[in-house]
Amino acid sequence: MTSRGRFISLEGGEGVGKSTQVKALAAALEARGISCLVTREPGGSPGAEAIRELLLQGEETRWGAQAEALLFAAARADHVEKTIRPALEQGRWVLSDRFVDSSLAYQGGAGGLGIETVRSINAFAIGEHFPDRTLILMLDEGRDRAMERDRDASDRIGGRPSEYHHKVETAFRLIAAEEPNRVRLIDASGSPDEVTQRLVAALGDLLP
Ligand SMILES: Nc1ncnc2c1ncn2[C@@H]1O[C@H](COP(=O)(O)OP(=O)(O)O)[C@@H](O)[C@H]1O
Ligand SMILES: Cc1cn([C@H]2C[C@H](O)[C@@H](COP(=O)(O)OP(=O)(O)O)O2)c(=O)[nH]c1=O
């Protein structure tokens, strides 16, 4: 019987290097003979990608806090069912650019619903499928990089004020302190290669 793969999520605020690193980490793991599926949230399955459009486009006032949290959770339930669980059952590792901790930090910590409320909505959505390890990239200049990358095209959530994004970062630190075995804070400064090495080191105990 094939053993179940590992589930890893990359987290952090805007522009800290998640999309760059999720691909680099997959390449580093593939080089060690580990078959990886790279995915992202919101999205990662056809249904969840459709919900992504609803969440990220349109007016800031399009959704209230509760509806926004539930839409992220609905997208996540579909992502787990259609993409993540089948890959893990095939023995592949799944690397996701954002997952449940983004909801805890953005909707829970910054959006005012509270981390525990958002955790309970998501417990229903994902069941036992919490990541085996969550790596949170920390970088002070992340938002500057995101603004440089997006110019005037930031999305409904990325375009929220700096106060909101500061609360997101505070919430990520809190989550890491609460769950030190699953969640690790990673210094995202330096070259892309240096960051990838730190990520691989933070998976040391999970590697075959
Ligand atoms: N280590 C790095 N040093 C300098 N620039 C980087 C580094 N990693 C990523 N970037 C650049 O910073 C911007 C944000 O990176 P990205 O991977 O898109 O972040 P995120 O997915 O977290 O929003 C991109 O333009 C990317 O090319
Ligand atoms: C997955 C997820 C994302 N988000 C937000 C974070 C981002 O602002 C936005 C889209 O994510 P993403 O496309 O990853 O943006 P970026 O590359 O700038 O980090 O959705 C939440 O608010 N809650 C969630 O559960």
From TrEMBL:
- Top-rank taxon, per record: Bacteria
Q: Which SUPFAM superfamilies match?
A: P-loop containing nucleoside triphosphate hydrolases
Tell me the keywords, alphabetical order: ATP-binding, Kinase, Nucleotide biosynthesis, Nucleotide-binding, Transferase
Reaction it catalyzes: dTMP + ATP = dTDP + ADP
Q: Which PROSITE patterns does this entry report, sorted A to Z?
A: THYMIDYLATE_KINASE
* Family from the record: Belongs to the thymidylate kinase family.
Output this protein's name.
Thymidylate kinase
Its organism's taxonomic lineage begins at: Bacteria, Pseudomonadati, Pseudomonadota, Alphaproteobacteria, Sphingomonadales
Q: What gene makes this protein?
A: tmk
